[in-house]
């Protein structure tokens, strides 16, 4: 599809202590443990990310990674990328993927950032902040891709709102102590 995802084991998903979350599309923030990907392309860096409308990406970048003051922006990036890892906006699908006729429920996180290298085997924590839509079946791959791109835009607009943007600072996102499962 051209929209990379990190696949999280369903057994690793717990939302507020509940393991049974409704199937659908959600948005929030993803913390990725330190790896080559987080150091090469830190949050807010110039990237080739083309899946989100440019005006939405710009608004999200200003709120999440600092305003127009370049010094503040650089300082903000430093706090989001460190030896602890990095925090990025994300949109995720939880469900059966009916278009592909999956027999196993899955959790797929799309980190809304263009990476030059993958982060296979890295630990990832996600903070789910909102629900976008239920899971649908599609008549074509093109319609599926169209909806995914809309989901990315909705997530970007939502995360650009200050109350949601502040949640990127949740210490949980960069707390990887004692974590055993990894994204694939």
UniProtKB/TrEMBL annotation:
Q: Which reaction does it catalyse?
A: riboflavin + ATP = FMN + ADP + H(+)
The EC class name is: transferase
Q: Does the keyword Kinase apply?
A: yes
A biological-process GO annotation: riboflavin biosynthetic process
Q: In which pathway does it act?
A: Cofactor biosynthesis; FMN biosynthesis; FMN from riboflavin (ATP route): step 1/1
Flavoprotein found in the keyword field: yes
Gene3D superfamilies noted in UniProt: Riboflavin kinase-like
User: Which keywords are on file for this protein?
Assistant: ATP-binding, Flavoprotein, FMN, Kinase, Nucleotide-binding, Transferase
Q: Which GO terms describe its cellular component?
A: mitochondrion
Molecular function terms, GO-annotated: ATP binding; riboflavin kinase activity
Q: Check the record and name the InterPro entries matching this protein.
A: Riboflavin_kinase, Riboflavin_kinase_bac/euk, Riboflavin_kinase_dom_sf
What does the sequence similarity comment in the record state about its family? Belongs to the flavokinase family.
Its function, per the record, reads: Catalyzes the phosphorylation of riboflavin (vitamin B2) to form flavin mononucleotide (FMN) coenzyme.
- Name of this chain's protein: Riboflavin kinase
Q: Which organism is it from?
A: Hortaea werneckii
């Amino acid at each position: 599809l051209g929209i990379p995802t990190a696949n999280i084991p369903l057994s690793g998903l717990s939302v507020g202590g509940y393991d049974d979350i409704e199937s659908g599309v959600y948005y929030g923030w993803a913390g990725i443990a330190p790896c080559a990907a987080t150091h090469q392309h830190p949050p807010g860096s110039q990237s080739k990310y083309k899946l989100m409308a440019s005006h939405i990406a710009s608004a999200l970048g200003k709120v999440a990674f600092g305003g127009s003051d370049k010094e503040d922006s650089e300082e903000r990036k430093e706090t989001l990328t460190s030896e602890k890892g990095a925090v990025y906006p994300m949109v995720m699908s939880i469900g059966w993927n009916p278009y592909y006729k999956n027999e196993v429920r899955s959790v797929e996180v799309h980190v809304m950032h263009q990476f030059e290298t993958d982060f296979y085997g890295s630990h990832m924590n996600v903070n789910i902040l909102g629900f976008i839509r239920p899971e649908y079946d599609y008549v074509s791959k093109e319609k599926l891709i169209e909806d995914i791109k809309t989901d990315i835009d909705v997530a970007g607009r939502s995360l650009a709102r200050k109350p949601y943007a502040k949640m990127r600072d949740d210490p949980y996102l960069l707390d990887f102590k004692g974590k055993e499962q990894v994204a694939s």
